[in-house]
Amino acid sequence: MSQISPQQQHIISSLSLTLSINSLMDLLNNAQPSSWSDDALVAILEATNACYRAGYPLVDDAFYDHHLLSALQDRQPDHPFLLKVEPEVISGKTVTLPQKMLSTDKAYSIAEIEKWVTRIKKAADELNIAHSEVYIRITPKLDGYAAFDDGKTLYTRGDGVRGQDITRAFTRGLAVANQGERGLGPGEIVISKQYFNAHLAEQFENSRNIQAAIIAEKNIEPSVVKAIADEACVFYPFALLPHWTGLIDVLAQDIEAQIEPIWQAVDYDIDGVILETTHSEIKNHMGATRHHHRWQIAFKVNDESAEVEVLNVTPQTSRTGRVSPVAELVPTKLSGATISRATVHHYKMVQTNGVGPGAIVQLVRSGLVIPKIEKVITSVTPQLPETCPSCHSHVIWEADHLICPNKSDCPAQRENTLVHFFKTLGNNDGFGPKVVEKLCQNGVQHIHDIYAIEPSELIGWGFGEKTAFNLIEQLNVSRTIAIEDWRFLAAFGVTRLGGGNGEKLLQHHTLPDLFDLTVDAMVEIDGFAQLSAEAIVEGLANVKDEFFKVYQLGFNLIPTPKLADSDLADSVLFGQQIVFTGSMTSGSRSEMEKHAKSLGAKVGKSVSGNTTYLITGEKVGANKINAAKDKGVTVLTESEYLAMIS
Ligand SMILES: [Zn+2]
Fold first, then answer.
1. In terms of domains, do 455 and 415 share one?
2. Which residues are identified as catalytic?
3. For residue 392, what are the CA distances in angstroms to 251, 388, 406?
């Protein structure tokens, strides 16, 4: 804790607390919360919370959660402050939210997550739901400005029941993330970290100040206007977040492994990950306290950091050919583990920041994530490789990365591709880097080669008899233990086709059909932009031969449920034929068509006898409307339509 800024002073003095600002700062700086009176504790909670909400945090999050909030929870579990949902301090009139917005219960250890998993399983048992039907979704916990979008109005979260109308953020051009639609409910206003650091960090102390500016009534700074236009600031509906979704039993096997990638999934500030069950019966059964949903939990961790000396920077070639700098470090203890190596972001960072033997770097471990080098404290002459450590091809720069251009014959790329396959399947054991390296040394190149190996060959290559038979057995296991088809697809390592996107495609098409999908057809699916679609179509074409060689060996694949079969069956648009005509005001016509399709509608271009609804935008002639009515079509205005689907 430190000095108080004029902004913080202003925020606190507007709260009319029972404590003067001076005595408040005195307590914060000099005394333990345990020695404070209840009144002082509440006053300090009010003050720190208000400063945090306004973008001028007074204490760090962990101190707030661990020392302030938890002290009050211990002393007075029913104190009204604990029932308020992190209220924002904006003056002005409030309106009732279309839906209650609760906050999320927090866990700070894997053990707490395990307990939550047990509670979900218990609820499933009480409802006689098999664990093989219980899925958990993990998403990043965005650290932005919480809001709710009902398609017409954007609301602040307020006290969770009543919020304020901040639709002006959309009027100012704020886009929905992921080319999403309006009306997707709860989300957060967030700012790209990269963009903030490149364009806004000099003018603003932190991204919270910008979030506050976007929704403020007064005029906003040109730099923020530009950030909105550049879509660096967006409203990110939770429904569109990248996610891991899998069976509760798969999660329970290795919670850390499933959580870890989500920490890196977005270029926005996040302060944890959120786990929730997607099973609606379980959700209903578990319900909510006044404060949070019981079927959802946030996992948060405190960052730990240390300054460490670099011994060496070693290049490592990945599956995709990217050569990554790995810093060998003087062994250092961090968050309970001894760390002796860490990945530097990329070779551009090695080059520009001077990372080499003798450099001092700041190592940060955020949660369970592998520690990363955040900052170089003392630089030296950088250590850059000229050739790929595996195949000795000359490396080339591609943006910030050095890459090995040898796509066809680089042992490291080949080995990592094979390791990635078996690791991603996740239903077998034995094909780690060491084994795969040995296989490759003996001429194995492709996944299908591995499935053709005989035990006698393995023994001839120096594997013990027991190991050889075990490896063959594991190949059988990998084909017989059921896995989701999207996981099988992800194992082939196509760029942008990790679990999330693969699952989305498989909600609409069968696995073999994906290889015939055109870019146009892919863009039709909600969530795929032109560039991603192009990259995915190209990537699929590259692995097509190998994919079918492996696929025809017969794996026990669980097909992804088709959207139209299940989730959409109760959508009002499910199976309906609709036609949009005229110009729409709440989004472009193609956006609205895409959205309608995502709700299970069949969208046509012209009215026929099969059409259910004609949705009319502006400037539609009476003839067209009457002709549709003659065919028995229900004609709706845009706002009637939006009301119907909301
Ligand atoms: Zn290479």
1. yes
2. 141
3. 40, 5, 9
